[in-house]
Write a structure and sequence with these properties.
heterodimer, A: 307 residues, alpha/beta, D-Maltodextrin-Binding Protein, domain 2, 2 domains, eight-stranded mixed beta sheet, 20% strand, B: 223 residues, mainly alpha, MetI-like fold, 10 helices, disordered N terminus, transmembrane helix (chain B), membrane (chain B)
Amino acid sequence: MEYRRREMLGAGVAGIAAAVSGCLGGRNAESDGSITGEELALATTTSTYDTGLLDEVNEAFQERFGTPVAANAQGTGKAIESARNGNADVILVHARSQEDEFMRDGYGVNRRDLMFNDFVVVGPSDDPAGVSETEQATAAFDAIASARATFTSRGDDSGTHTKERVVWNEAGLEPGGEWYQETGSGMGDTLTVASESRAYTLADRGTYLSMQDNVDLELLLQGPIEGGPALLANPYGIMAINPEIHSNVNYQLAMAYIGFVTSPDGQAVIEEFTANDQQLFYPEALAEDPDFQQYVPEGWQSNADED
Amino acid sequence: MPLESIAEPNYLRSIIRISLTVSLTAVALSTLLSLPIAFLVGFADFRGKRLVTAVINTGMGFPSVVVGLLVLLAISNNGPLGSLNLVYTPEAMIISQCILAAPVITGVALSAVESVDDTVRNAAYGIGGTRTDVALITLKEARYGVITGILAGFGRAVSEVGSVLIVGGNIAYADGTSKTRTITTAITFETRRGEFETALVLGAVLLVLVLLVNGLVLRLGGR
């Protein structure tokens, strides 16, 4: 009996060891294709990753430069936090105010506009607040607040949550009370909660489209892609982490990645990416006209000392 | 470092209040449900007793996310209990924690009742005790085991995250007060946001709570 138990233990330990080495082995196997013998750490948001866009982009990058990309998908707030701690070489996020702060603090360098999609307001089909009759995001939010209709917020400092707060601000409203509920979860979870609670929410178009069949929510206010208000635009920016602050980051690879995704080739990959036969992201890195705002925090000369 | 510098005291307070309310209610309900079952099964001899015991013991290891999923399907709008509007409410979390804690309390209490030495029972019969007297003596002997069972049930309820996240939805109001955000779901949320300090404070609070409840119950148990 004693002997049997030892055998079982041994088998268990061996099994765990095999599993661990399997995981590690998988990692090594992945970087075998690397010419540089390195991999690039990319901190990004859930929307770019969950839609499958990054797989396409990173595959094309690896073909061109021979370096695999390790993408870590979190909310924008968390992605920026990782980058501040030097746990990423390059960061791809969608919350301009947080990006600007990141650059003002000196953590990020060489920001570029990369692409955009948009946000939509979704809600129950009977639309008790009358959102479908509004033209502007602020008016829609105003209608929801006046009707005290349940509104489900991400509440997680993500890019979407940041945009939602901007809209409340623009509308001059301070949401609060029983009708305003923060889930602290990702977009998918939040859409599910909104659907069950018969609530309104602000969602990025991509996640809403991908979940349309599973939730009981109607698209009530379009974003700019379908002619809606410009306030609901959802621009994505990409930045390298400042190698003077974190000496461990791979700055050259980061710049190669930024160079690739903002090149005509990289932009074409973004342009051609579809889900359910719908284009989800619109490239925005290249234009013939000057666009200085994309390299520096917005309005940085007029209020550089503003928080 | 004072707590105020790390997290809103109101936020912490309301999360802790929701967590305790939900878990204590759930454990109280499952105790009412579990102890009679444990005593009945423990005292009675019937065919299939071993099967019942096996089912109870299996229930002790039931994965909380699965319980959460099943409860959600039952109470969601198009589920059989949809009309009760329970989804994403503290009541929903009480239901799922009840289901999780009940087998634990039943199982531990049952083994406590069964492990009361036969000599005790025989001695009780020997001095002319009725069946009721013997049962009471047995219960008295088994009380620490029963209390341990209730404690284990509370530990299971207050520290599980899978089911309350699914049926509760981790919802808080804009002013930072919790609707269905518990200590455990708040920890996962704060960690994901990179607010490690707040998460650590909540983790410490959870540990202290479990220790306090343990100490309190042991004291009541007369140790």
